[in-house]
Design a protein that fits this description.
Blueprint: H1 7-13, E1 14-17, H2 29-34, H3 49-61, H4 77-90, E2 95-99, H5 107-123, E3 127-131, H6 135-141, E4 145-149, E5 152-157, H7 159-162, H8 165-172, E6 176-181, E7 186-191, E8 207-211, H9 218-226, E9 230-236, H10 241-249, E10 252-255, H11 264-275, E11 279-282, H12 292-301, E12 307-310, H13 324-335, E13 337-339, H14 342-358
Parallel strand pairs: 1-2, 2-3, 8-9, 8-11, 9-10, 11-12, 12-13
Antiparallel strand pairs: 4-5, 6-7
Helix pairs in contact: 3-4, 9-10, 11-12, 12-13
């Protein structure tokens, strides 16, 4: 409760890091950080040895001690931001309030500042309350999120609870695809609104069958589903991210047990589903003994259906079958249309839909 509290007491417990800091005085970095000791000094009292030890510790903590004699206006944006954080630490607060601490910083300085804050909360048990517009940074570095809309709390909780496609659609009016990045174990928010159908939610009869896996088809299935295309997929393992996304979107899917070859019965079912489609999309997935039948079907369907193949990496980097996948993929490429990314795939599908409607 801050009501009735003395400003000096508040400043000893809480420190702020503004989004931008503009000083009309020519301070050195050391002089700026030393100002952080002001709440701990009496009127006209000068800093003592203990105060300067705290200042030096704060500057070493933020890798700014080497800048202590430099004027602030000589520093880069990242260096200046670290000096302001050092000033806040010199107050020895328990709570840090930060307003867009990575604003206007390049990626290297962003990571440096964020890593400093992460260390402070984990090693020194300080509480950092910060505002972010970058949802991916918020997901990676924050334990608890509060999503605001029209100056009111719209959602709060863990990143998984707050950063949902529905919440972001409601608050920002944007369509996004959300995935977990294994390397960082954090959520990744990717916009797909640029691919949405400008004509609204009209029903479409054009069917697209996906031969995918390993999370390579989810974003495209999501985008086409939102455009009201009829989408199907197979054969997928229930442990596959593409399977999970297909189920979430209500997409008809052929599934089989993980870590085993696709049974002939599932292969036939996948063929029937592909034969119902107007186009087939083959994503850039790796091929092994378990899913080689999917590539066999893709090669087969390229003879009778328009087939789109995503290709950025050479097939050799994705072939774990001793060359059989390369042979099938080479045959597939001879008849299929190659695309580099999701935008090209959707552009081709819209073109195919238009040609189908003309017939």
């Amino acid at each position: 409760d801050l009501e009735g509290a003395e400003e000096r007491d508040i400043a000893q417990d809480m420190a702020t890091v503004p989004q931008e800091f503009d000083s009309s005085y020519s301070f050195t970095a050391l002089e700026m950080v030393t100002l952080g000791r002001t709440p701990h000094l009496g009127p006209l009292e000068s800093e003592g040895k203990q105060d300067m030890a705290v200042v030096k510790s704060a500057m070493e903590r933020t890798d700014t001690w080497r800048l202590h004699s430099r004027d602030l206006d000589e520093l880069s944006g990242g260096e200046k931001q670290r000096v302001i954080i050092a000033k806040a630490l010199a107050q020895e607060p328990t709570v840090l309030l930060l307003d867009e601490p990575t604003n206007h910083l390049d990626i290297s300085n962003q990571l440096t500042v964020l890593d400093i804050l992460e260390d402070l909360t984990e090693e020194e048990e300080k509480c950092a309350i910060t505002t972010f517009h970058d949802l991916n940074i918020a997901s990676k570095y924050c334990d608890f999120l509060i999503l605001l809309h029209d100056s009111e709390i719209y959602a709060k909780g863990t990143p998984e609870e707050v950063l949902t496609e529905e919440n972001i659609r409601d608050v920002y009016g944007a369509e996004v695809s959300i995935r977990r990045i294994p390397e960082t174990n954090s959520l990744s928010v990717n916009p797909v609104s640029g691919l949405m159908d400008p004509k609204g939610t009209r029903e479409r009869s054009f069917r697209v069958h996906f031969i995918c896996g390993g999370g390579t088809g989810g974003p495209m299935m999501n985008s086409l589903k939102r455009k009201n295309f009829t989408v199907s997929a197979g054969v997928l393992s229930p442990m596959d991210d593409d399977y999970k996304e297909a189920r979430r979107l209500g997409i008809e899917t052929v599934e089989c047990s993980p870590f085993s070859e696709i049974p002939e019965s599932k292969h036939r079912k996948n063929r029937k589903m592909a034969e119902k489609s107007d186009a087939v999309v083959v994503t850039e997935m790796p091929f092994g003994e378990g899913n080689l039948k999917n590539l066999e079907l893709a090669e087969e369907m390229s003879r009778v259906r328009p087939t789109l193949v995503i290709k950025q990496k050479p097939i050799e980097e994705r072939d774990f079958t001793g060359g059989r996948a390369k042979e099938l993929f080479t045959s597939l490429e001879e008849r299929a249309t190659t695309a580099k990314n999701m935008r090209e795939v959707i552009s081709h599908i819209l073109e195919l839909e238009g040609k189908t409607a003309e017939r």
